[in-house]
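Practice problem: Transport integral membrane protein
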Amino acid sequence: MSGSRTGRTGGPAAPAEADAHRWWALVVIALAQLMVVLDATIVNIALPSAQRDLDMSDANRQWVITAYTLAFGGLLLLGGRVADLVGRKRTFVIGLIGFAAASAIGGAATTSAMLFGARALQGVFAAVLAPSALSLLTTTFTDPRERGKAFGIYGALAGSGSAIGFIVGGVLTEYLNWRWCLYVNIPIAVVAVIGAFALLHDRPGHADARLDVPGVVLGCGGLVALVYGFSEAQPRGWTDPLVLALFGLAVVLLAAFVWWQTRAPTPLLPLHVIRERNRAGCFLTMMLAVIGMFGLFLFMTYYLQVILGYSPVRTGLAFLPLTAAIVVGSTQISARLLPHVGPRMLMVPGMLLASGGMVILTRMTVHSEYVAEILPALLLMGLGMGLTFMPVFSTATAGVAPKDSGVTSATVNTSQQVGGSIGTALLNTIATSTSASWIAAHLTDPAQRDLIVREGIVHGYTVAIWVAAGVMLLAGVVAGVMVTAKAPKHGTPAERPAPEPVR
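Answer key — structure tokens:
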């Protein structure tokens, strides 16, 4: 099914040379990536409507979000390795079909449990789909100039997909109903499956290799415990016994996983993938950047709707300049400059711009004007994210042996998911606790209660946004210190010299 066309050529650049339709193939890969990323946020705006329809409790409603992120983040390493073993095109198609089926079940849900299960199933198939999409991109585009353009588009979607989710979710919820936030995946998946069969080509999987079952149990179990711990820290608090137990379990399982990977005959995650300095720097930069970004999405959604009184559609449209700035930063600036400058020359300024945008947002009040006070911050954030995401994806996946490209792609996605979980839990906890103490200290006149509560909520947001700005700065420092790769030479597929040997 896959690989017949490229199996005759041995060089790593074969797909790019042989495949005249690679830019159309990029459209298919980009569609799948967009579907996976926007599904993390598209249901946020639809959640109040779904909660009413399915009689969800306030305590349980978070599972609409958590079930997806938990399965997605926890199973990514397994999905990446399955792509390497079975073949990337095959797992890509399986992921698309499964994701569409899970979306159909979720859209037709008649109970909250049915919706939670469908969202978890979406996460499972997203964990198969995302690594195979990125590794197909990695093996299709090997010429540095073309690779820059391709990764610019991919980075733009990865960075803006969440914001696009808010826009699409708002429109679908307001003009159709919340179920279309799930049904919308079906036509996208159908188009992508047809395109995959027609346009994507891949080497066959390594059928003789075996799956590292102890590694799957330890690695995926540790990631599930970690993501679950952060999701429960949000409603329960950081010192809750369950939260502490989950974090403890995650540390034990992940430590055991690292130990086992040094001894496993066919490791789930070969440690040389994360030991190489540039890749490690990219993984860490991605995680820190997403911590700050998810904080922005979380607070701005509530701020625009609850404080400023925006409708779901208007809230979604308010994110449009952010999305446009990410696309421009990624495709028009990063993609053009990366062939000529080292990736940290883009990543460091990108994180400084994003942090500056966050600092501007700390000045927002209950009466802020969108154009004068919110828009400049969103534009800076978008440009910064666009500058950063594209070189992260490109550098992290460069110089990797084809048999490890799936698991390397999965590790990039894992750092993104873990960063999102940490950002949502950490920043939300800071915001709510700060708001509560500020309101308690200032609520002296009962007649002013409504205004004081609103001001307290915004105060909590601004404190948390200061923390997010600091995390963005830290991401810039990490990129500057750890990512030492040079600009790629034309005609060479690797974007940094001497990738380490593969065992």
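Discussion: The chain has two domains: 16-211+268-482, 212-267. Students who identified this feature from the tokens alone can consider the problem solved.
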